[in-house]
Amino acid sequence: MYRKPWSPTPPIPSPSIPTSPNTIEVTGEGTISAAPDKAIIVLGAVTENVSLTAAQNENARTVTNIVEALLRLSIPKEHIQTTQYSIDIQYNYEDGKQTFRGYKVTHMLQVTVDKIDKTGLVVDTAVKSGANTVSSIQFTLANPEIAYSHALSLAIQNGQFKANTIASTLGVTLHPIPTLVQEMSRTKEPAPYPVAAMYAQMEVTPIQPGELQISALIRAAFTFS
């Protein structure tokens, strides 16, 4: 009987492992300036009395007067909201002894102003109506996503410029379409700044909104040959 000579089974070739393309990684930054078009004011009334009922009633009357005055300025009712209401017991401390002094009632309102040129008028009106604390004013944008989109576009352009500069310096050809574009961060909301509550001596409190800086940061990867 004829038998075919034995020969080992040829090994199955392993798939080739693709080599990683040459890559340039960069970060891109973009910043634009934008004039704020909305103000958020936090103000209110603090009342103290040895009688809790008296302190509450006085506070309620004051806050009602503030709200009514703001409504007369054409501030929409939905733009006025309570952000804090608290009742605290007050004590005096003398010679290591604690003596009851009375109650403190705090009622804070957040007022959103769509016309920032009225910011000073809103503050003055509230103070004249009984507000005795103005804790902060924050200027922001009604549509921040529009400004951020412009900053993001600048960040991408900046990343492309950096990649081109690196490729040119190395003497290689950059592939213009990135293999990766990753958004790294977004501008935080502008922090409110504290405001003193002594406005009675001024006709109109001069509030300066200035400009907001909106920034975007991206990470991008480009291949080259």
UniProtKB/TrEMBL annotation:
Organism: Paenibacillus ginsengarvi
Chain intervals with Pro residues compositional bias: 7-18
Top-level taxon: Bacteria
Name of the protein in its database record: DUF541 domain-containing protein
GO BP: DNA damage response
Region (Disordered): 1-21
